[in-house]
Amino acid sequence: MKGKVVKLLMVFIMTFSIFTGFMNKNTYTQVNASASDSYLSNIKKKGTIVMGTAPDYPPYEFTKNEGGQAKILGADIELAKQIAKNMGVKLKIKSMSFDSLLVALQTGKVDMVIAGLTKTPERAKSVDFTIPYYNGGQSLLVNSNDNSIKSYKDLNNQSVGVQTGSTQYNLVKQQVKNASLKGMESVNDLVLALKTNKVKAVAVESATGEAYASNTPGIKAIDAKFNTAKAQNVVAFHKGATSLVNAANKTIKAANASQEFEKKFIPEASKQMGTSAKKQKISVWQQMYNYKDYFIKGTEYTILISIIGTILGLLLGILLALMRLSKNKLFHAIAVAYIEFIRGTPLMVQIMFVYFGLGTIVNVPALTSGIIAVFINSGAYVAEIIRSGIESIDDGQSEAARSLGFSSHQTMQIVVLPQAIKNILPALGNEFVSLIKESSIVSIIGVTDLIYQLRIVQADTYQGVVPIFIVMVIYFILTFGISRLLGLLEGRLKHEE
């Protein structure tokens, strides 16, 4: 037993060392590049600059339904357009969760991050920042009928909602005594938690607080009165990208001199923001119907990822199962190490590793990264399903085949596998159904699946529960329909026996 453990550890160490070697090589290349600082010239050669943002923070960045398409708008977007224009390149926007933005910047998925960021000593160790382009205050969102909260001091020993990785998170942690922090990725989720009394208040930037308060019935925004200077929003660039920082600073200095951000960008963004069903004077369901194309597109991506992930996962699972059953010790060790490692780590971490980790070696698009992560995860589980199915076939079947002159390969292909597939079909069906639900995690890297579209609809309509209900129904229809089809197939196979 100890010998097997040692072998598995050796396989892990070898794999990690190889990958670390690639990572170190890539890091060395980046360091040398930063020494000569060719970042700006590379951007100009490419002709585009990629901006990372989390569009659930109006009026800075938000999504809006324009002609059935989700368009990312906001004051930060206008600033980014100006920066790109002055650099002589086009702007490309990548949407993802807020706490993934700096990781995306460090791994080269985006060239800059503009998302209401503030500079902190911790962040400055990993990325470079421009001069501030806007000084914003801090607000608390509370329920309209709650008059007990006047400032952050009234939140002592209370549950407070904050966006993970935000300045507000640190302010609440440092200044509110014994606060129970409820960190979430999306401000929409925080507002929903407030409305359902899961938290006493939500800490946000002032302009964002006003946007949500004016469009969400039942909540209001008040001055948080934190003991701090106003938050200074900055643009983040890759560490060492001094040429990009300097170029962006020229644009920001001009904007600051004319107060363009607060006098033009924010007012224009406020006019563009989506409005609630109540302000549109339509029913919530009519409002949701207007976003039907979003739900349809999300469903298509969810099905696409699930089908491709299942097919590739099945092929990988068969290979791993045969390797694990092989008498070759190396193949067996590799298969066991792979299966145990993948089954022992969360799919979310695997998705982030494929997108951000492997992204330091080769630039893999978000959708492709999601599919890769899903099928390598599924392959490990399918391998165990197939292995158990093969081992369930009586040894007499194999002995009879060999007595007829079949080789080991022919015995497995013609006799064992067809019988095993009939036995494992229900388990494989369950794996496919599970994959449909688990694939929802790919939204964290910006894949436009159902959950991603759900976030867009929530942000644009200020509706929290109804979009969630619609997505739940869609997932149920998908999984229930597939379960029934697999049940019919299973019944037919039994009938043929």
Spell out the blueprint of helices and strands.
Layout: H1 2-36, H2 39-46, E1 48-53, E2 56-57, E3 61-66, E4 69-73, H3 75-87, E5 90-95, H4 101-106, E6 112-113, H5 121-124, E7 127-129, E8 134-136, E9 138-143, E10 159-163, H6 167-175, E11 180-184, H7 187-195, E12 201-205, H8 206-215, E13 219-223, E14 231-233, E15 236-238, H9 242-258, H10 260-272, H11 277-280, H12 284-289, H13 292-325, H14 329-343, H15 347-357, H16 366-391, H17 395-403, H18 408-438, H19 450-461, H20 465-496
Parallel strand pairs: 1-5, 1-6, 10-11, 10-12
Antiparallel strand pairs: 2-3, 3-4, 6-15, 7-15, 8-14, 9-12, 9-13
Helix pairs in contact: 1-14, 3-9, 3-10, 13-14, 13-16, 13-18, 13-19, 14-16, 15-16, 16-18, 17-18, 18-20
- Report the span from N to C terminus: 41 Å
Amount of helix? 55-70%
Q: Report the count of strand segments.
A: 15
Proportion of residues in extended strands: 5-15%
Largest sheet: 5 strands, mixed
* Count of helix runs: 20
Q: What's the alpha carbon Rg, rounded to whole Å?
A: 27 Å
Mean pLDDT: 86
Query: What's the CATH C level of the largest domain?
Result: Mainly Alpha
What sort of overall outline do the alpha carbons produce when their principal axes are compared? elongated
Domains counted in the coordinates: how many? 4
CATH superfamily of the largest domain: MetI-like
Which spans of ≥5 residues are poorly predicted at pLDDT below 50? 1-35
The third-level CATH topology of the largest domain is MetI-like fold
Helix vs. strand class: alpha/beta
Strand order of the largest sheet: 5-1-6-15-7
